[in-house]
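Review this chain:
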Amino acid sequence: MEQQGRRAIGRVCPRGAESYTWQEGDTAERIARTYATTVQALQVINPGVDFATLTAGEEICLPNFIYTCISGQPYVVEDGDTFASIAARLDITTFELAERNPGVSQNNLTVGQVLCVPAKADDADDAQTPAIPLPDDGEYPALPDDAQTPVIPLPDDGEYPALPDTPTRVCPSGYTLSAVQSGQSYADLLVQHNVSYRAMRSANPQLMPGYLIAGTAYCAPPSGTRQTCAGLRSYTIQPRETLDTLAVRFRTTRGRLLSLNPTLLPSDFSSGTVICIG
């Protein structure tokens, strides 16, 4: 018998995956536990989907097992496991384990839950290219001349044709075009640019918090951004400006500014904070 919400039709999903109708009270973590997958896999197979804002009736894709862990390997939680004990057993920090499992409640693990962990070192060693034994004379034979890398002849005009320009992402005004660096986590990006999780996710839905790929381009919101201003202008508060002086400057009211910035407290209207204005 199929579990509630699971469907075989509706949203177009990758081969081998199924669609699922979001139910009232669902969370990405709950769905991952129910269908023996990971939050990381759900994010990868549903690019651009913000699980925090889904409403009942919307559809997502349920990954099959090959999507479970894009980096590393799956680990099934056993009786007595805790986030800290799993990290200690794998000789990693709880922070690294958390980065590989975004959205997972560290204090609420359940038996059978699937987590993503680093691949075993033994597996990596087995995958190494076998060494070629050295001949008795101590030297490898030279390659024949016809096995050398061929030289590409120079065109008649003496210049090789230029490579086409690599398309770059266009960022909104005030945003900075950046690229993910090797080894960076999503938290590193937020700290580097001093922006909120919500602001970065809204501006870059293609970035998967638990699966960043080095070289991926993204638009960094202005430093201090806690929200995005869809359809509105943004403004960075200057020194000595307050909610009152900003209302006068932009010919509006304090209530209007607060309604345009629902995530901000009145005391947040201080130097360096990015706000939305009409």
